[in-house]
Automatic annotation (TrEMBL):
<keyword id="KW-0175">Coiled coil</keyword>
<comment type="similarity">
    <text>Belongs to the PspA/Vipp/IM30 family.</text>
</comment>
<feature type="coiled-coil region">
    <location>
        <begin position="95"/>
        <end position="143"/>
    </location>
</feature>
<protein>
    <submittedName>
        <fullName>PspA/IM30 family protein</fullName>
    </submittedName>
</protein>
<dbReference type="Pfam" id="PF04012">
    <property type="entry name" value="PspA_IM30"/>
</dbReference>
<feature type="coiled-coil region">
    <location>
        <begin position="21"/>
        <end position="48"/>
    </location>
</feature>
<feature type="region of interest" description="Disordered">
    <location>
        <begin position="206"/>
        <end position="226"/>
    </location>
</feature>
<dbReference type="InterPro" id="IPR007157">
    <property type="entry name" value="PspA_VIPP1"/>
</dbReference>
Amino acid sequence: MSVWRKLVTAVKGGATETAQAVVDSQAIRILEQEIREAKEELRKSDHARTQILAKCKLSQQKIDSFNASIAEFETHARKAVDSDRQLALDCAQKVAELKAEREQEQSYLDQFKQSEKQLAGNIQQAKANLRRLEQQVDMVKATESVQKAQVAVSSRHMGANSKMKTATESLSRIQERQKLRNAELQAAEELASDESNDDLEKRLAAAGIKGGTTSADDELSRILGN
C-alpha cells in the first residue's frame, strides 16, 4: 500500500471514529429524551390506574348498596307473606331485580379489578425497565466522564514526564558545566601558587639566603677549609 493510500485510509478511519462519536453522543441524548417521554407516559398510566381504582371503589359501593337493598326487601317479603301475599311477591320481584343489577355490577367490578391488576403489572414492569435503562445511561455517562478524565490525566502525565526529562537533562548539563568551571578555578589557583613560590625562591637566592649560584672563591674556600 502506498503512503498516499495509507494516509487516505487513516483519514477515513479518523472520520469514521469522529462520526461514530457524534452518533453515540446523539444516541445518549435520544435515550434521555425517550426516558423523559416514558416517564410522562408512566405518569399518565398511574393516573389511568387511579381512575380504574376509583371505578372499582364506586362499583363496590353500588354492590354494597344492592346487598343492603336486597336484605331490606327480603325482610319486607318475609313480613308481608302472611298479611299480603301480593306485596310479598312484589318484594320478592324487587329482590330478583336487585340481584340482577348486582350481578351486572359485579361483572363490571370484576372487569375493573382485572384491568387494574394487569395495568399494575405492566406499569411495574415498565418502571423496572425504565430504572434499568436509566442506570445504564447513567453508568455510560459516568464511565465516559471518568475515561475522559483519565485521558486528560494521562496526557498531562506524559507531558509532565517529557518536561521532567528535559529539565533533568538541563540540570545535568548545568552540573557538568559547574564541575568543569570548578576544575578550571582549582587549576588557576595552583598555577598562581606555583608562580608565587618561584618568585619567592628567586628573591631568597638574590638575597644570598637560599639557593643561588655558588662563586668559585666560595667553593675554593670551602675546599681549603677556610
